[in-house]
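Standup notes, structure subgroup. Blocker cleared on the DGJ input:
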Amino acid sequence: MSEKKRYDRFTNGKLNEYVDWLDEDGRIINASDGGIIYVDGVYYWYGMVLRPLPVAFHGQGGQTTTVGVAMYSSRDLYNWKYEKVILRSSDDPDSELYAPMRFERPKIIYNEKTGKYVLWCHFVKNPGDHGTTPGTAEAGVAVCDTVCGDYEWLGHTRPIDDDGLVRDSTLYKDKDGTAYFIYDRDVNDNRCLHIVKLSEDYLSFTKEYRRIEAAYRREAASVLYHGGYYFMFTSGLTGWKTNPAKYFRAQGLMGEWVDMGDPCEGDVTGTTFESQSTCFLPVEGRQDCFILMAERHNTENFERCSYIWLPVEFPTPDTMRVAYRESWSMEEVWGSR
Ligand code: DGJ
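Run returned:
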């Protein structure tokens, strides 16, 4: 993990600004639409290494990776050390992972029963574009014995049935260790978020699922639990363009989700502060403190997407909101530990 202290706060910049977040070697942190997992006192930030589309693919929307999923480490969430590529795309045309391709929105959870780290993602095989065409539209899974190891690609599949294309997806591991795959299921453009219970080893889908009717034509789902409620932050379906966020609340993951409207306080542009949600990060050692990790897509050069991290507020036990901060620290918002 990083020992160099370049930062002591998060800098999102102005609403139309792209701010380069640098690792300890001064390189832009290139870990798109991923997540963070906390293991033995260290945060591990992982995400897809974005490269601008090869010229041959320009104009086809979307963007792809020719590297795979990278991982960084930190003890303080401000300063990050590049560790390695944990799941690599391939230069072998016969490989499922032949690049350019996409491990979109990768999420990692740890299985206490098997001792394995399990990664699920929205898998789009070569050429990896799915902005204009649905692409492969499958769920991909990989596994590793260590959090920052070489993840073994196990393949791809579709939950529920083959009719439902997989698009944006995320994972949620509940308090009792049960894990869920939450995804934008697309059946002939009838698109709605669904939640599917994973098997005990987290490596496959069970038949237990629910269509979240309220979350019709929503994507980029992120889930947290606070004060007896589950909160799900989502975006609308506008490709790489921004749109107003909407969140949902439930008392049970497989229960009734209620539309709670836009959580972004003062978002006068209706653009989720010119960003799109990626996931929620529970801050270790700070009870009920969560960071919304979002991303400001840079469609001119995806390698320069910038990160928008904001503290989550709970005005009442059954509501949440986020307010934009150009720059902030956990100590300012939540006090010193
Ligand atoms: C918006 C989604 O949230 C992204 O993950 C990506 O799939 C783009 N659409 C592609 O257009």
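Discussed briefly. DSSP finds one helix and 23 strands in the chain.
Next: hand off to the docking folks.
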